């Protein structure tokens, strides 16, 4: 157990958020004990607003009461604050680190927005185009997997690393989107590496206890849509 | 002796400038390769096939793209004059402000200068909120990085130099000395650095560049 006496770690979040999931997986990888502070839906707590005044968003990690914001910054912080615990989340070599950071950035700056765009499409034509964008992005990651994994089971090699966390957090919502759109995003034949990786990721010790089941996410999305009379919640709404 | 470090850049591009500044602060010799962004070289497209943009750093023939990532690589590869603190929490805070600059602040500043009417008013409001946050962050500090220029200062270099030019071209005022005294003082301190001035594009030339661009946009309407 990496949490020593007097170390106080809390995570402000919500169970459906893939960004919150990133922080939870990182903490689990390092064996860090933490208190999960679930935000009430539709309402931001005083604590959250004080801890993240700039964006007012989850996740926020509180370590000795001091906040760290932005999911991948939290992941990197967990890696640096508990260097001896678990396994390194980012590789040691500066060039390899740059590659991992590049693909995590790609996921946040390009892939995730293309997924959000898809969830907002109104016409069949728009849906097909938007789905195509998501698949094109995943194809790049299929290629990147080959380069980063060095023949092993994860982007991080032997074990889950930075890019695994950045991408894997979306797998639950991806399954929901596959059901609602009828599009297969990670096709075993077209993206065998990602397909194999996705199964391994979801089965990992650090992930399976905290990753919500797609059915639960789907029910959550339906409830939100019904109460807001808006398109289903996507990962950008937290 | 072959130069190990090359920077694909475009003159006047503030993201390219970040990379050159970081290398100069650390005393790293490099060769710059000028890119015409309207006619990108095959080399650039090979080295950055995903985004096809400058800057790209080439070290021992290996390419790294995206300016903030390049800054992290430079910090990890050359230890002189660190641009990130040692403490993990302070590092996280620095990374937060770098992302804030790229995701919110610089976008709002840039768009304030290139839009009109209500759209412009909205961007200007956002820009002012962003500048206010940076103003607060600077309280009691000479630089965002403390006593010396750090990664956030490097990321914010377009505020110190490009913003004034854009304000002039657009005929607007954003960085008001009365509202943002810390930021204005920071600009002065930042521009005193030798490394900063060595590769900063001349103001007059930047002005001409952006004025031409503005005219080109206006003539299309």
TrEMBL record, chain A:
One Gene Ontology cellular component: cytoplasm
Annotated keywords: Transferase
GO molecular function, a single term: glutathione transferase activity
GO BP terms: glutathione metabolic process; toxin catabolic process
PROSITE patterns noted in UniProt: GST_CTER (PS50405), GST_NTER (PS50404)
Catalytic activity: RX + glutathione = an S-substituted glutathione + a halide anion + H(+)
EC code: 2.5.1.18
Residue ranges annotated for the GST C-terminal domain, each copy included: 93-233
InterPro entries: Glutathione-S-Trfase_C-like, Glutathione-S-Trfase_C_sf, Glutathione_S-Trfase, Glutathione_S-Trfase_N, GST_C, GST_C_Tau, Omega/Tau-like, Thioredoxin-like_sf
Residue ranges occupied by any GST N-terminal domain in the UniProt entry: 7-86
Family (UniProt): Belongs to the GST superfamily. Tau family.
Name of the protein: glutathione transferase
Species of provenance: Musa troglodytarum
Organism lineage: Eukaryota, Viridiplantae, Streptophyta, Embryophyta, Tracheophyta
From TrEMBL, chain B:
Domain GST N-terminal: 3-82
Domain (GST C-terminal): residue spans on this chain: 87-216
Reaction catalysis annotation: RX + glutathione = an S-substituted glutathione + a halide anion + H(+)
UniProt keywords, alphabetically: Transferase
Entry's EC annotation: 2.5.1.18
GO cellular component: cytoplasm
A Gene Ontology molecular function term of the record: glutathione transferase activity
Database matches in InterPro entries: Glutathione-S-Trfase_C-like (IPR010987), Glutathione-S-Trfase_C_sf (IPR036282), Glutathione_S-Trfase (IPR040079), Glutathione_S-Trfase_N (IPR004045), GST_C (IPR004046), GST_C_Tau (IPR045074), Omega/Tau-like (IPR045073), Thioredoxin-like_sf (IPR036249)
Recorded family membership: Belongs to the GST superfamily.
Protein name, as recorded: glutathione transferase
């Amino acid at each position: 157990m990496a949490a020593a006496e007097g170390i106080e770690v809390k995570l402000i979040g919500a169970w459906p958020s893939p960004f919150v999931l990133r922080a939870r997986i990182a903490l689990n990888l390092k064996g860090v004990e933490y208190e999960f502070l679930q935000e009430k839906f539709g309402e931001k707590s005083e604590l959250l607003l004080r801890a993240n005044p700039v964006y007012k968003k989850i996740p926020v990690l509180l370590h000795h009461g001091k906040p760290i914001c932005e999911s991948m910054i939290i992941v990197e912080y967990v890696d640096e604050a508990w260097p001896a615990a678990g396994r390194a989340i980012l590789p040691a070599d500066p060039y390899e680190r740059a590659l991992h950071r590049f693909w995590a950035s790609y996921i946040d700056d390009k892939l995730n927005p293309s997924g959000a765009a898809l969830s907002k499409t109104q016409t069949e034509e728009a849906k097909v185009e938007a789905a195509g964008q998501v698949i094109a992005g995943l194809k790049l990651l299929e290629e990147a997997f080959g380069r980063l994994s060095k023949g092993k089971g994860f982007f991080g090699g032997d074990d889950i690393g930075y890019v695994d966390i950045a991408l894997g957090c979306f797998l639950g919502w991806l399954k929901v989107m596959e059901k609602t759109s009828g599009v297969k995003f990670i096709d075993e034949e077209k993206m065998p590496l990602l397909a194999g990786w996705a199964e391994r990721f979801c089965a990992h010790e650090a992930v399976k206890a905290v990753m919500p089941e797609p059915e639960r996410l789907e029910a959550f999305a339906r409830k939100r849509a019904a109460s807001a009379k808006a398109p289903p919640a996507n990962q950008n709404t937290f | 002796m072959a130069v190990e470090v090359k920077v694909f850049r475009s003159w006047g591009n503030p993201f390219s400038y970040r990379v050159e500044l970081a290398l100069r602060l650390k005393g790293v010799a490099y060769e710059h390769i000028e890119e015409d962004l309207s006619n990108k070289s095959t080399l650039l497209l090979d080295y950055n096939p995903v985004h096809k943009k400058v800057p790209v750093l080439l070290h021992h023939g290996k390419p790294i793209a995206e300016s903030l990532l390049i800054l992290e690589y430079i910090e990890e590869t050359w230890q002189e004059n660190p641009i990130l603190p040692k403490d993990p929490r302070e590092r996280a805070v620095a990374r937060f402000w770098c992302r804030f600059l790229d995701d919110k602040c610089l976008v709002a500043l840039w768009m304030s200068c290139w839009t009109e009417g209500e759209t412009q008013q909205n961007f200007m409001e956002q820009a002012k909120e962003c500048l206010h946050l940076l103003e607060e962050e600077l309280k009691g500090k000479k630089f965002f990085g403390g006593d010396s220029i750090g990664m956030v200062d490097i990321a914010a270099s377009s505020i110190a130099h490009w913003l004034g030019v854009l304000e002039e071209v657009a005929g607007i005022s954003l960085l008001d000395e009365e509202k943002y005294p810390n930021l204005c003082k920071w600009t002065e301190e930042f521009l005193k650095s030798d490394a900063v001035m060595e590769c900063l594009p001349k103001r007059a030339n930047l002005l001409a560049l952006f004025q031409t661009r503005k005219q080109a946009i206006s003539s299309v309407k």
